[in-house]
């Protein structure tokens, strides 16, 4: 009996594991031109930071896309990052704008996206509003992998049962 | 010998029958996610930042607000009481101005509003994650089961860990979402953890959000 229980637990566990495939690995984001805030309202000052120009490097920034013109990134951030700032013009329209910086040394270009939004501002930040779409109901419906595993397990049970009945009909002792 | 073989065959058949029935019936977790109970609601009735300066935890000890930490982006969130341990990715806003959600196919990934307050900093930091995806339960499936006084830990890039204590767990309908309560600026370091909830309809999906309110009560270096 104890053996049967252990077997049952083991099989159930194996089936449960088969039904739940491991989570995929998570890749970290790569460096570029960092903007703070990355989502800004018109009139707000945006801080720009990049490590791409090396320690102590400086860069020429271009925020003309959003109508803010050129700005300079000078060394002075964490680990000698180049940092600078520009102001989003009060007349800027909502949308996504590409901000570019070119390193003074070597001419490497880095880019970052600035989103201009019209919204509530709390301490210079744009606050989100409304609910967040963080579910699709997938926990509620049947899991296809699990369903397949269930059908397979029932097939095994049916085959085993049939075989036992077959033996019994032949007069074998069970 | 044959008898042993028959017993084993019978055991395997019974096991397969039970497992099959269990899997087809829904198995583990193919049910609606837990929703917060009335006991976990906000009790102050006002903006959470001003009404209370501490939270009664399960041991009856009051948790004082801790001083704010400097800005540093978060890397990971842990909620030991509901077995959450997930990396954090940066989130922006949708064109409609609502908070974007992390990619749904990564079920153990949460996100933080990267243009806003970093967890531990003074103000309201926002973390969101999926309750489920098309494959089944996701990172914040059990968020609605969180209790007042529970701990939430956020690992930050500067090497520190911000420790928050849960003040309340609420469910809000999408049709009447209290923006100011959830996203509004705070005078002390606060955290909101958001996922989907509040009932599910096949046509319109989840009806709202489960929102966890917490404030900073400590930090570890």
Automatic annotation (TrEMBL), chain A:
Superkingdom as given in the UniProt entry: Bacteria
Span of the signal peptide: 1-27
Alphabetical keyword list: Signal
Name by which UniProt lists this protein: Integral membrane protein
From TrEMBL, chain B:
Pfam name, any one: Sortase
InterPro entries: Sortase (IPR005754), Sortase_dom-sf (IPR023365), Sortase_F (IPR042001)
Positions of region (Disordered): 28-80
Keywords: Hydrolase, Signal
Signal peptide: 1-21
Domain of life where this protein originates: Bacteria
NCBIfam families: class_F_sortase (NF033748)
UniProt protein name: Class F sortase
Source organism of this protein record: Streptomyces actuosus
